[in-house]
Amino acid sequence: xxxxxxxxxxxxxxxxxxxxxxxxxxxxxxxxxxxxxxxxxxxxxxxxxxxxxxxxxxxxxxxxxxxxxxxxxxxxxxxxxxxxxxxxxxxxxxxxxxxxxxxxxxxxxxxxxxxxxxxxxxxxxxxxxxxxxxxxxxxxxxxxxxxxxxxxxxxxxxxxxxxxxxxxxxxxxxxxxxxxxxxxxxxxxxxxxxxxxxxxxxxxxxxxxxxxxxxxxxxxxxxxxxxxxxxxxxxxxxxxxxxxxxxxxxxxxxxxxxxxxxxxxxxxxxxxxxxxxxxxxxxxxxxxxxxxxxxxxxxxxxxxxxxxxxxxxxxxxxxxxxxxxxxxxxxxxxxx
Length: 336
Prior knowledge:
The chain has 336 residues and is an alpha/beta fold. Helices cover 37% and strands 26% of the residues. It has twelve helices and 14 strands. The strands form three sheets. A six-stranded mixed beta sheet has the order 6-7-8-3-9-10, sandwiched between helices. Strands 2-1-4-5 form a four-stranded antiparallel beta sheet. The longest helix has 16 residues, at 172-187.
């Protein structure tokens, strides 16, 4: 197998301008066949623009996209048959049954009439919706609708599947169920591109992750590789009273010579932290009469990576943070 044959998607020096605004700035990366490749970034980072260019919905200002050996700018009609796309909005006709929703989509993909029922029944089985095949989709739970949406995007059996925030708005059980579906699709050799607002989701699912900000690729690697860019060992998080933050910063920087980042209301120390170092820091703060509310060590997370690379949190609401914490408490997610 040649090096080029290892990749489903190859992106070279991709740029997209809207007037004077440069949404995507000279990005390049390659996605291996059969991997789950995550694309993370804050709102306005260029994720959606990049996906739309891969899908052929936007033409690049410059650069090249090669998909399964086809040049996206010249052979887009062939490429469209190779890609399935699931938007973050659940797009089903609530008045139609699950079966009829799938039939319509099969015809949109020009699947021969004599094969449509076979394809539809297979999709219903894959989504575990056989018992609900002739029930109006509008009566389904959010998780059931999302599963229907997923198999609808797979009706033409694509080699590549793009999932744009596939679990947004789902409850914890439905989200974990969707994770299992995504892993199953990957096991069948399908290449998956995943965007998500849940960093623990990228950590659990993605073989590699690209973090994009301001139209540029900030880093690409496995979750473990990206976490090592924050620290090779533990981090130390400290929370103090708001009116003591300035004094604390001076102690950490001048007296203790500690490197730190400010994340939300925490000081996060990135030196090689061990128990002795934590005790030393705590004693110095106490000696200077700093009221330490919390202090603790932890290994780097994807949230730490994202904060370091972009200077902000990916989550727009405390609701998403709470969902992640609840999942961890229930043992539904872990750390890698």
